[in-house]
Amino acid sequence: MGYQNSFLFRESLNDTGTTPTVDSIYWSPDIICHDMVADPDAFFAENYDRDVSQAVHTGTALNFLYTRVKNLSKDATPAVGYINVYRTHSSLFMQPSLWRNNPIPTASGKRSLAVQSSVPGEIVTGGDFFRLSGLESNTFCMMGIVSDSPTPTLPESDFRTYDDFAYWFRRNPAVCARNLTVYSGTTRQFEGMHSLSNPESEEKEVFIRVRATDNIPAGTVYGIHCSALGIQQEQTVKEGEHNDFVVLTHLPPGIDTWICSYASLPSGTGEWPAGEKIDVGFFVTMEPQHKSYCFGASAASLGMGGLKTRNATPFQKLVQLGCCSTIFINEKG
Fold it and tell me: What is the DSSP code string of 208-241?
C-alpha cells in the first residue's frame, strides 16, 4: 500500500527516502515535541540534521507536536500532502488496530495538517502543530503518515505476518514512527510496560535486545521480564563496557502479551542522568524468500551473533520490527 512519494517522513536521521533502509526505526526525528516556535518552517529546516525533540510534559494538555517532511520531487512541480499523526501505548509491534483510531488533532482542531512545496529538497512543516495532551492519556508512541488526501487510506486490518508489516512500514517513505516513553528522573527506579503480539499461525523465534546508553551510572541494574514467555533477565551496568544483552525467545501463535522493562540506580545515586536511555528492541528472523529480507542485517553485524535459532541458515537476517525507548529527564535540569 502506497501513500505519497513526494514527501519523506524519516524513520531515522540516516533515512534518505531510498529503499531498502536497514537503519534503526521507531525513532523518527520528524515527529518533534518542542516548545512553540515563531517560524516552524525556518526553525526545523535549519536543524534538519538533528533530532531536536524535547521531553513530553505529562502535566499539561498542550504539548506542541511539530512534524516536518522533505520534498523528494526532482523538479518544480507543486507537491501537496496531508500529515496525520496517531498515538498508542508503548508497543514492540505496532499493529494498525493499536493506533488507527487514535488521531491527534492539530492546533486548529483538524485531523490533518496540509503541506506544500514546489522546491526540490525543501523542508516544510505546514506552519502549524498537533496538540498532544499529557493529561488524557499516557500513550506517547506516535505513528505519522503523509498522504495525498486529508483522510489517509489506512490498513483495513492487522497484518497477518511480521513480514507483511515490515514490508509495508519500511517501503513507504511517507510512514514513520516515534516510539518514545519519557520518564522523570526524580526517583531511583523505573518500570515500563510494552505490548508484544504474534499475528502468525505458527511459533516464531524472536530476538529482544536491551541496551543501556553509556552514561547510565555503573552499578545500575536493568532488565526485562515476562511471565507468559518465561523471560527474566537482567544485567548490571559496568563502567567502560558496552552494556546490552539479548534474549532469544519463542512467541506462541496468536499470543498477545506484555513485556516489562525496569532499572534501578545503585545505592547512593539520587537521580538519573538527563538524556540517557534504555532501549528494548524487537527483531525477527527473515529468509531470502521473505519480502522484507532486504531490510535485514546479519545477527553478527547487529552484535547478536552469539545466539542461534533452531533453524539457523547461512542466509538468515534479522529485521527490526520495533523499539521502545525510555529516556530519563531530570526535572531539576
Answer: EEEEE-TTSPTT-EEEEEETTTTEEEEEE--TTS
